[in-house]
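#onboarding

Welcome to the new folks! Below is a worked example of what a typical request in this channel looks like: someone posts a single protein sequence, and someone else replies with the predicted structure as tokens. Don't worry about understanding the tokens yet, we'll cover that in week two.

Example request:
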Amino acid sequence: MKKIAILFIFWVTFFNAQKLTSEEVSLINQGNISTALPIYQTTNAVQHKTLLGLSTEIDPQDPNTAILVKRMKESLLSTDGGVGIAAPQVGINRKVIWVQRFDKEGAPLEYFINPVIVWKSDLQNLGPEGDLSIPDFRDQFYRSKVIQLEYADLKGQRYSEIVEGFTAVIFQHEIDHLFGILISDKKEKEKNDSYKKVDAYQKSDLNKK
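Example response:
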């Protein structure tokens, strides 16, 4: 049954993956395609808008996807200790991420195409997070301790695995980027969602005379 479910997700992903636009292809291939793409910053209004955009699925077997994957790795390597990066951070609102796997020997960097978190544990950890796209911002966030992840490689092969600990935190952070969720906005939302004192007997404005 699980194999059937994974196969179904694969076909949904295949048919939903939209062809890259001419603008995206141009950006992916700009300059020297063996070098890093610039990392977008929230301090730039145009780039900030891209970072807040919703990412769509990408065709794993499109040759331009392989170029994007390679250049994103170079972008991550160009940072001072970055442990993950998402495609919106290089200007492409597509579902591609890189994550440093601290749960594996040697802590290798690995890419993930069209990643989906299909399950999260209720048990959470509180820990510090920063962001390559948000200068001088760092705060504490709650993240699920364990997740189940499904994703594809450049051949279109689908995978499913359980990830936990700090690596699970990185996955959750990077996949948030694919939904336009930035940790600075996340922290502000948490503040706004806090309980507020309300007078239970206060009439609404519509009922006031």
